[in-house]
Amino acid sequence: MSFARYIAKRYNHTSKKGEQLWSKPMMRIAVFGIILGMIVMITAVAIITGFKKQIREKVTGFSAHIQLVNRDLNRSYEYTPVDNNWDYLDEIQHYEGVNSIHPFITKPGVIKKDDEIEAIVLKGVDSTYSWSFFNKYLISGEAPKLDSTKKSNGILLSAYIANRLKLKVGDRINMFFMQKPIRLRRFTLAGIYQTNLKTFDELYAVVDLRHLQKLNNWEPNQYSGFEIMVNDFDQVRQIERKISSRVALEFNSKNESLQTISTLDMSPQIYDWLQLQNMNVWVILILITLVAGINMITGLLINILEKTNQIGLFKAMGATDKQIIKIFMINAAKIIGKGMIWGNIIGITLCYLQQEFGLVSLDPDSYYLSEVPINFNWTYFILLNAGAFIVNLAMMILPSLIIARIRPVQAIKFN
To answer: Where is the MacB-like periplasmic core domain (predicted)?
Structure first.
């Protein structure tokens, strides 16, 4: 065992006579600061990443990660129809990172009940559509049951629309479509969902797309486009570029081609807002790390001052500055590690309790969520701990350099 490790192992914060030294309470404050700092940093990262994850899931649940639509200037909900006879559709399905691809149709309409009316957008899907997103947010009834043989009259509405029109599961709904002539379709309310993403809850209802094909006088193989879901949100832009380069130069007999639109371009205001949250996290992490580091620096400076006699004695016995600095750095690492361990235990426990029991609620109108979200991303936690430990320990180097300026003769006389 080296000299530095041997001394550091027997290091304490009491004098020979058992008197309490100033460094001991300062070190306790430093440990408390690190514990509190780790709790704040862990919960901040868990909450912000959880918030971003849930909002992303809600946005892409309505519009998918990528849409493949006709290459024209139409930006309304009445798309120019596209056929499903493109050779590359099966090829895209097997691209790395692509989870699924399914057709969709959107069409605006008006629901009328008594004297109340509500304008919405119908989203038509077929039997290949996954209801996992809407099933997660169902509060009543069930998703419409779609199969390839029989057209379903079921409709899935948001709680916002259902409450405004005083509708409940099983009610018949009259929906009018503003075209020449005005068309009427009757649906049965199959289920009610609530995502708390008000922008979309106020807008979308989901039905069997064959109703919309008939209203538009489209063929059975014509759709508004195709929705593509990917496995990793961080790969959306990369996969979109790959698909775009594949479809850009291919035209059909009508001289039409398709284009890709990612969710990042469909809802830029939401993603820009989410991007701002990253800055908040960095500000919190930097401030908390600096506060914890300053506490440690203060404690270490007081410790060096109190141990000046010992430092002078070690130097007189032949110990080098490097060895003595190592003694203090080892003890600083122990203190930082102790604080981080307790901070992790408390922080992760608080996050778990929030995830399981939803102890802290939110205003859905302001935050799009009914309770504080938590995301256990262990990679982030590991990187956070490693970064915090390295930065705090690095901050200890500067006050430790004071040891090099202490001279044995003066230090031994120091009182």
So the answer is: 29-244
Same domain? 30 vs 100 = no
Q: Is residue 313 part of a domain?
A: yes
Predicted TM-score (pTM) of this structure: 0.84
Which SS3 state, helix, strand or coil, does residue 98 take?
A: strand
Domain co-membership, 38 together with 115 = no
Looking only at Cα atoms, what is the longest distance across the chain?
104
pLDDT in tens, the chain (415 residues): 676 777 767 665 444 444 445 567 777 888 888 899 999 999 999 999 999 999 999 999 999 999 999 988 676 788 889 998 898 999 999 999 999 999 999 999 999 888 889 999 999 999 999 999 999 999 999 999 998 888 999 999 999 999 999 999 999 999 999 888 899 999 999 999 999 999 899 999 999 999 999 999 999 999 999 999 999 999 999 999 999 999 988 888 778 899 999 999 999 999 998 888 888 888 888 888 888 888 888 877 777 777 777 777 877 778 888 888 888 888 888 888 999 999 999 999 999 999 999 999 999 888 889 999 999 999 999 999 999 899 888 888 877 777 767 777 666 665 5
Residue 265 lies in a domain: no
177 with 153, same domain? Answer: yes
Q: In angstroms, rounded to a whole number, what is the distance separating the alpha carbons of residues 187 and 104?
A: 18
Cα distances (angstroms) measured from residue 182 to each of 77, 121, 177:
17, 16, 6
Same domain, 243 and 147: yes
Nearest to 220 by CA among 83, 88, 90: 83
Domain encompassing residue 168: 72-256
Q: Quick count: other Cβ atoms within 10 Å of Cβ 362?
A: 16
Instruction: State whether 235 and 286 are in the same domain.
Output: no
**Runs of H (alpha helix) within 234-320:** 236-247, 263-266, 268-306, 308-316
Cα–Cα distance, 62 to 118 (Å, whole number): 19
- Domain total of the chain: 2
CA–CA gap between residue 92 and residue 89 (Å, rounded)? 5
Reference 167, options 103, 235, 218, 118; nearest CA is 118
